[in-house]
Amino acid sequence: MLKTRLLHVYIEPLENGRFFLYCENDSGFDVGPDDWKGQLFLWHEASFYGTTLQSKELGTRKGIEVNSWDLLLLFADESFSGMIDWHWDELGQKCLAVAPIMYDSIQEGKWIPRFEDMAENGLSFQVPDELWDNFPDEFWQEDIGEESAEEFVSDWYQRSVRQSLSAGSSDQIFTRLKNSRTARSLRKSFMLILMKKSGANGSG
Q: Is the pLDDT of residue 197 over 60?
C-alpha cells in the first residue's frame, strides 16, 4: 500500500527502445512497483491502466519495463494520478515536454518515411520540423546519458511510429492519414524511386 504522496520517478533507457521505470520516496528509499504502477498508469489504456505491466528488476532496483510507444502515451496523455506529487528525473522532464507534440504529429500522420535511406538503414521517419522548432537549440544540445537530447528524441520518435503502426491505433492513424499531406508525399516519393530505378535499368 502506498504510504506517500510524493514519488521520484527515474527512467533508464534500455536496448531496443525500451525503458525501465522505478520510484523512490522522499527519503530516497525504493518503492515497489506494485505500490505505484496503478497510480502512474491510472489512465493509460494501452496497458489496461497498468494491470498488464509486470514487475522487473534492473540490478538492485525493482520497477517496470515499457516500450517507446507506451512511454509516449504515458507522457502525452499525462496518464498518471493527480493525487501523487510526481517528481521526474531529467529524462522524464524532457519526455514530458516533448511528448504532446510527438504524439500529435504521429496521430495526425505527419511522419514521412525516408525512402532514400531505406536500403542502408532500414525504414526510418523524418521528425517533423515543428517538434524541433518548439524548443531552443540549447534544449536539444543537452546530454542525456551518452547522447544528446536531439539524438534521443529522434530515436524515440522512430520507434514510437513503428510501434504505433503495429498497435491497435494503426487503423485510426491511417484513417487520418488518407488524402493528407503525408499521403501525397508518400506517393511522390514512391514515384521518384520508381523513376530512378527505371532510369538506372534503362542506362544499363
A: no
Q: State how far the Cα of 183 lies from the Cα of 27, in Å rounded to an integer.
A: 52
Give Cα separations from 52 to 45, 67, 90, 144 (angstroms): 10, 13, 27, 29
For residue 26, what are the contacts with CB-CB under 8 A and spacing of at least 6?
4, 6, 8
**Span between the terminal Cα atoms of the chain, in Å:** 72
Q: How many helices (H) and strands (E) does the chain have?
A: 9, 10
Q: Please state, in angstroms and rounded to a whole number, the distance separating the CA atoms of residues 79 and 55.
A: 19
- pLDDT, one tens digit per residue, over 161-186 is 888 887 654 444 444 444 445 445 55
Tell me the sheet residues that pair with 82.
Answer: none
Q: What pLDDT digit, counting tens, does each position of 31-64 carry?
A: 999 999 988 888 777 776 677 888 889 999 999 9
Taking residue 188's Cβ as centre, other Cβ atoms within 10 Å add up to: 10
